């Protein structure tokens, strides 16, 4: 039976400085100990959020499974460690996005339910105006979409710039199952988005002269020819 190495012990105790020293000296950040526990799993289990962040920054595998098939995120949710759950979900650090957006993108229903129960806003906005339901619709996260709609998410939430709804997003990417979920939840099938205005600059006067006045066109061509011959010399 595998025992715990120094890195596992430091992670269990939340000794972040020691963890850093061990990693700097070649310790395997994803080494499995007894029951398949990784250092990240142990730090998550014990609610050591700074240690968790350090491990993630050094390449800890979020998807690593214990012998019973659990991840670090699973144990953090199970143990009610909110800050660790958020840290694990935000490991990719997409600026302005929330842990709920990341959970929706990955179709992780347990963390979504956990965060909503902890008071995180179900319709929290990303910089582009997307709610978690927009994200679920875009990435075909059917389970997340069902959970979010059942949790009171705004079915017809609009983004600021182009008034995109979750149904628009699902329709664009061809996610028929998400379209069905949203329609069954009451999404408006005929709701329009906001059309982007295309600005067409007015043609410059000299271009019009070149196109429609043969004598000016000839003058322009002669001038170009003279300039070319000057530079060739």
Task: Give an account of the 3D structure.
With 233 residues, the chain is mainly alpha-helical. It folds into two domains: 1-93, Serine Threonine Protein Phosphatase 5, Tetratricopeptide repeat (Alpha Horseshoe), CATH 1.25.40.20; 94-226, Serine Threonine Protein Phosphatase 5, Tetratricopeptide repeat. Helices cover 53% and strands 0% of the residues. The protein has helices at 6-13, 16-24, 39-45, 49-57, 72-78, 82-89, 99-105, 109-117, 132-138, 142-150, 166-172, 176-184, 205-212, 214-232. The radius of gyration is 28 Å and the shape is globular. The model has no long low-confidence stretch (mean pLDDT 86). InterPro entries: Ankyrin_rpt (IPR002110), Ankyrin_rpt-contain_sf (IPR036770). It comes from Paramuricea clavata (Red gorgonian). This is Ankyrin-3-like, partial. Keywords: ANK repeat, Repeat.
Summarize the structure.
The protein contains 14 helices and no strands. By secondary structure, it is mainly alpha-helical.
Total count of strands? 0
Largest sheet: none
Order of helices and strands: HHHHHHHHHHHHHH
- Which stretches are poorly predicted, pLDDT < 50 over at least 5 residues? none
Task: Name the descriptors.
233 residues; mainly alpha; Serine Threonine Protein Phosphatase 5, Tetratricopeptide repeat; 2 domains; 14 helices; globular; ANK repeat
């Amino acid at each position: 039976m595998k025992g715990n190495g120094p890195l596992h012990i430091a992670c269990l105790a939340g000794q972040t400085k020691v963890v850093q020293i061990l990693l700097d000296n070649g310790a395997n950040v994803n080494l499995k100990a007894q029951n398949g526990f990784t250092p990240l799993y142990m730090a998550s289990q014990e609610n050591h959020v700074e240690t968790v962040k350090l491990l993630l920054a050094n390449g800890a595998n979020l998807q690593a499974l214990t012998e019973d098939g659990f991840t670090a995120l699973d144990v953090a949710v199970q143990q009610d460690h909110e800050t660790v759950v958020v840290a694990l979900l935000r490991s990719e650090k997409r600026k302005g996005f929330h842990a709920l957006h990341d959970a929706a993108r990955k179709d992780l229903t347990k963390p979504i339910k956990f965060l909503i129960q902890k008071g995180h806003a179900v319709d929290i906005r990303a910089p582009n105006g997307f709610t978690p339901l927009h994200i679920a619709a875009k990435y075909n996260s059917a389970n997340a979409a069902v959970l979010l709609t059942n949790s009171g998410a705004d079915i017809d939430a609009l983004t600021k710039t182009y008034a995109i709804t979750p149904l628009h997003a699902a329709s664009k990417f061809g996610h028929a199952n998400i379209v069905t979920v949203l329609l069954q939840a009451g999404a408006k099938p005929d709701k329009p988005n906001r059309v982007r205005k295309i600005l067409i600059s007015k043609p410059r006067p000299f271009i019009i002269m070149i196109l429609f006045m043969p004598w000016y066109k000839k003058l322009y061509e002669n001038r170009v020819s003279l300039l070319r011959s000057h530079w060739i010399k």
